[in-house]
Design goal:
Distance between the termini of chain A: 80 Å
CATH class of the largest domain in chain A: Alpha Beta
Helix content of chain A: 25-40%
CATH architecture of the largest domain in chain A: 3-Layer(bba) Sandwich
Largest interface: A-B, 65 and 67 residues
Strand content of chain A: 15-25%
Largest sheet of chain A: 6 strands, mixed
Oligomer: homodimer
Number of domains of chain A: 2
CATH topology of the largest domain in chain A: FAD/NAD(P)-binding domain
Strand order of the largest sheet of chain A: 5-2-1-9-21-20
Radius of gyration of chain A: 23 Å
Mean pLDDT of chain A: 90
CATH superfamily of the largest domain in chain A: FAD/NAD(P)-binding domain
Shape of chain A: globular
């Protein structure tokens, strides 16, 4: 019987591991709750109406259909028994493994305030992206209908919490929507009057980047009408706004649209894994793996990507980005191949390929070789476009995304700005003029 | 003050009316519940994973953004007062009109069995399309996991109720999914073993077409693995299948996926309109309009498209298709312009441009000049492709749909086959192996 490899999660880590096992003498099962791989780095463009869900998602079965040693199972993993070496699924019989790769990724993290999730959605899934799109677009629609100036202002105030790459991308795209996309679309309101606030607890935006790049990013944001509010801490979020704390004291911002880009933690399965194996996890639920990306003492269990914390040679954890997950996935696959041949395995080594972050049209920052080489502006933006296009999984998607970008760039229109989903249940009833008010209006 | 025109509904009728009023000396408001125009004829391709929602939907504001006399209001119309000439909205102040165009379209019609809607979704909205996509794709996933042969067979049985153009399109696409798209994607099941049943009460498929075209359509369907069951009446639908009645008596078909393409009726607003104005409606809720598409006796209210029934010169009602709505929309706009100038208005005349229906790859039927000229096969299919591409609202969508079709045709892959939405709430819990069964499996 062939060596049974089970991979949990079809994100960057899991998918790259599966593909790197092509042709290996293993029996591979990739388990995921969803039937597609999601290209997270472009998810914010779905949220801002630039791309469509199918542009950034790839059916896992299609990606692995020609890989004869692989099968895909659409299921949710509920538990693990590391002694009998099997995982339990919510709607299918248990699955035995000889090697397990845990690549369960991350979820939004509200630092103990999970009740904020309802009012400040994060950006981790396709559903959340379309929900955010719904909220952003509906806010302008509601403002167009709102006779009260204060309420209108709250509808036109957008708060993005967290000024890392995702927060900067979202805020920049919001600036473009307000200033370019919707400029001529309304009759009562002027979308350019929107306020877009980017909040962060640190003293600069894009803090993982060099200070000089943070500065140029902030300048680009200002041009897009985004105001960065730094050194502030969010202390409350509700349907009508956020409460913030800064050196100037406590303050409240009335805003009907609050987006969360402040942090992620590992998805829940790592806690179960920790309970069953005794593996240590950090505060974000990430499993502390050894130099081989294994649960210490369990060479048959790899934990990779956002599900793990891997301490680099400099003593700092590796960044929670796609390249880390891809490299760890490919590494785990290689380790399995070597073990099957009885060869020795080298510890995992992370190759820092550099970092990119986009702010808006023709505006991005880039740094390479641990910051020794860096630049911003048009060239960084073109590089960003190129890199993201190349990493899209299929040629079809590369072509379609390229075309959409071309149109968006030249017409500033965002073709995918659809308000879909349960419009009635989601936002409308609570946000509409109340029935009494309506009756009043009507009776006049 | 300019003449106030209010259009309810941004479908083919409403949008064509709005665009035909470009430059007219009117103050135009287009009210719609959704912020986009939906290109219904390609909606089945969203349901079958060939296209993405944004490919067939166009933001209304973008379409009308350069038309300075027009504004768009995202709202739901709840009532009308034909005396004071105003309509009431669910979340905004009432709207007065001098001329009203009711273009509220159609909804699924279950012939008095609305409880079937839950088990047999129809295909009228983007949400329904993604829900149907979810169901179709999830059925194969569930079959892959199902150890019981009978249950697996029920997951792999697809019933389409109604063999008009929409039913034939859906059944044909299902045949292609089972035979081509998913052929190599699964390991436990063989998608080619799926049964696809197309049910209709009449004695042939595509009954609005010539009998010879119905025959060739049925032959094409058989090649795709679709079995047409004719002269049968559906007498029951539940989560596990349908009950049918035919000359052979009562029978039950176990099927976990049932799709409804058997009929539409006018959306609810026409009943309100009828109550308030005394306008007559037919059994499908369609307003019986006069020769000018007006509510009889109310020249200031037009009812067009699927919201109305218009008796043609042959004494038969016009077909409920997009060209009827477009022509009536353009006619209403022209009538308004003429009235403003004090000119006489000609009655509406419908121009039959012919009919097309697609079955699958390189397979369609076409008839023109009231059936005097007709053909089927590759050329009809190419014509269908061309016509549908040309009627897409924007050039960007034409290009993207063209590319997707090109890839689908050459690779038979359907890039948009994503299972999105509330997978947990929608299908899974009831359909999953029950907890007891699971516990049993586990304890062995």
């Amino acid at each position: 019987m062939a060596h049974r490899v089970v991979i949990i999660g079809g994100g960057f880590g899991g998918l790259y591991a599966a593909r790197a096992l092509r042709g290996a003498d293993v029996e591979l099962t990739l388990v995921d709750r969803r039937n597609f791989h999601l290209f997270q780095p472009l998810l914010y463009q779905v949220a801002t109406g630039e791309l469509s869900p199918a542009d950034v998602a790839f059916p896992l079965r299609a990606v692995l259909s020609s890989q004869r040693n692989a099968r895909v199972l659409l299921s949710e993993v509920t538990d693990i028994d590391p002694v009998s070496r099997e995982i339990f699924l919510d709607d299918a019989p248990p699955l035995g493994y000889d090697t397990l790769i845990v690549a369960t990724g991350a979820k939004n993290h509200y630092f103990g305030n999970d009740q904020w999730a309802e009012y400040a959605p994060g950006l981790k899934s396709l559903e959340e992206a379309t929900r955010i799109r719904h909220r952003i677009l509906y806010a302008f629609e509601a403002a167009e209908k709102e006779p009260d100036a204060d309420k209108r202002r709250a509808w036109l105030t957008f708060v993005v919490v967290g000024a890392g790459p995702t927060g900067v991308e979202l805020a920049g795209a919001l600036g473009e929507i307000a200033n370019d996309t919707l400029r001529c679309d309304f009759r009562s309101i002027n979308p350019e009057e929107s306020r877009i606030l980017l909040l962060d607890g640190s003293d600069r935006v894009l803090s993982p980047f060099l200070p000089t790049l943070s500065n140029s990013a902030e300048k680009s944001l200002i041009k897009l009408g985004v105001r960065a509010m730094l050194n502030v801490k969010v202390t409350g979020v509700d349907r009508y706004g956020v409460r913030v704390n800064s050196a100037a004291g406590e303050a409240r911002i009335e805003a009907r649209t609050v987006l969360w880009a402040a942090g992620v933690s590992a998805a829940d399965f790592t806690r179960t894994l920790s309970n069953r194996t005794g593996a240590e996890i950090d505060r974000g639920g990430r499993v502390k793996v050894d130099a081989f990306c294994n649960v210490p003492g369990r060479p048959e269990i790899f934990v990779i990507g956002d599900a793990c914390v891997f301490i680099g040679p400099d003593g700092k954890p590796l960044p929670g980005v796609a390249p880390t997950a891809m490299q760890q996935g490919a590494y785990a696959a290689k380790a399995i191949r070597k073990r099957l041949k009885g060869e020795a395995i080298e510890p995992f080594r992370y190759l820092d390929k550099g970092s990119l972050a986009v702010i808006g049209r023709a505006s991005a920052v880039a740094q390479f070789f641990e910051g020794k080489f860096h630049f911003s502006g048009l060239f960084a933006w073109l590089l960003w476009l190129f890199v993201h296009l190349m990493y899209l999984v299929t040629f079809q998607n590369r072509l379609i995304v390229f075309i959409r970008w071309g149109f968006n760039y030249t017409t500033m229109n965002r073709g995918a700005r659809l308000i879909t989903g349960a419009i009635d249940k989601d936002v409308k009833p609570e946000d509409a003029i109340s029935t009494e008010e309506h009756a009043e209006v009507r009776s006049t």
